[in-house]
User: What shape does this take?
Amino acid sequence: MHHLYDTIVWENNFVYAFDYQSFKVMLNPLLPLHVRRLPYLSLAFLLPLTACQSDSSNKRVEEIRVGGTVADIIRNPVSANQPLDTVHVARIVFEENNFDFGEVEEGAVVTHTYRFTNTGKIPLLISGASSTCGCTVPEYPKTPVPPGESGVITVKFNTEGKTDRQSKPITIMANTYPSETKIFLNGIVKPGK
Assistant: This one.
C-alpha cells in the first residue's frame, strides 16, 4: 500500500515523512542517497523561478505605531508616531463645563446648550459626543468649526425613571489635545406623583 505524506524532510541521512492527519512519522535511513536528494534538487531548480522580484518603483508602505487604537489616529493625529505638537491643534473651550439644572419633577426633559469656542490654530472637528446612558443625548456640529469661531452642543436629559441627585457626564471626542473633553449636567430629580 502506497501512502502520501504531507511533509518529507531529509536530515542527517534520515528521511522523515509526516502525516498530519494520523500524526504518523516514518523514518527511512535506507533510501538510496540520490532518492533522498531528489526533493532538494527540485527545490534548488524551482526556487529561483518563484523568488520575489525586487520592485524598482521604490514604492513602500510604512507602519504607523500608536499606543492606543487605530481610532486614536483618526480622532487625534498628533498622537501618531511623531513628536507631540500641542500648539498646532484645535482647542475647544466651553463657556461653562458644568450646568446645574436645579430641581425638576421626574419625567421632565431638561435641555441645555453648551457654547464653545475653537481657540486652536486649525479647524475643530468633533467626531462624536456621548453620555453614560441613553437618557442623555448630545447633539453636536458635524461640520468643522474654524479657529476663533464658536459653536454649540445641545444636551437633552430625559428624567423618566431617574430620581434624586443626577450627574450626567458628556464626553466630546475631537481633534484636540487631549482628544476627549468632558462637560457635566447636574441636578436633582424629585419623584413623580
Notes: The longest strand covers residues 164-174. The chain is about 10% helix and 40% strand. Residues 33-38, 50-77 have pLDDT under 50 and may be disordered. Residues 114 and 193 are 31 Å apart (CA to CA).
